[in-house]
Amino acid sequence: MQAEFPGAQPLPSGSPHLRDAGPDAVLAGLDPEQRAVATALDGPVCVLAGAGTGKTRAITHRIAYGVRSGVMQPQRVLAVTFTARAAAEMRGRLRELGADGVQARTFHSAALRQLQFFWPRVVGGELPRLVERKVQLVAEAAARCRMRLDRNELRDLTGEIEWAKVTQTVPEDYPAAVRKAGREAPRDPAEIRQVYKVYEELKQDRGVIDFEDVLLLAVGVLEDRAEVAEQVRAQYQHFVVDEYQDVSPLQQRLLDLWLGPRSSLCVVGDASQTIYSFTGATPSYLLDFRIRHPGATVVKLVRDYRSTPQVVHLANGLLAQARGQAAAHRLELVSQREPGPAPAYTEYPDETAEAEGTAKRIAALLASGVRASEIAVLFRVNGQSAVYEQALADLGIAYQLRGAERFFERPEVREAGMLLRGAARAGSDPLLDGAQEALADQVRAVLSTRGFTPQPPAGSGAVRDRWESLSALVRLAEEFEAGRHAAGLPTDLAGYVAELDARAAAQHAPAVEGVTLASLHSAKGLEWDAVFLVGLTEGMMPITYAKTDEQVEEERRLLYVGVTRARAHLSLSWALARSPGGRAGRQPTRFLAGLRPGSSGPRAARGAGSGGSGGPGGAPDARGAGPGAGGGLRRPRAPLVCRVCGRVLTEAVERKLRRCAGCPSDLDEALYERLRDWRGVQARQQGLPTYCVFTDATLIAIAEDAPASIRDLSRIAGVGRAKLDKYGTAVLSLCAGESADSVPEPGSAPAPGDIPDLWDE
Question: Model's pTM, two decimal places?
Answer without folding.
Answer: 0.66
